[in-house]
Specification:
62 residues; three-stranded antiparallel sheet; 5 strands; two-stranded antiparallel ribbon; mainly beta; elongated
């Protein structure tokens, strides 16, 4: 799992990074792209109030 997650607000185009330890636990989306690819979604709120969702792909592991 990456240490930092990058976000970009679709409304105001603000970009920022958060430590994964500062965010709520991710949601496992689906195993796609093979048995070892896992996709997680992280959510954070932009300074303008928009809830931004970012998907992270992790290769390897079970």
């Amino acid at each position: 799992m990456p240490d930092k997650i990058s976000f970009e607000c679709p409304r105001c185009k603000t970009r920022w990074e958060c430590q994964t330890s500062e965010l709520d636990a991710p949601d496992l989306v689906i195993h796609k792209g093979g048995p070892t690819a896992r996709h997680y979604t992280y959510r954070d709120k932009c300074q303008c109030g928009t809830l931004v969702v970012t998907e992270v792909t992790v290769q390897g592991g079970s």
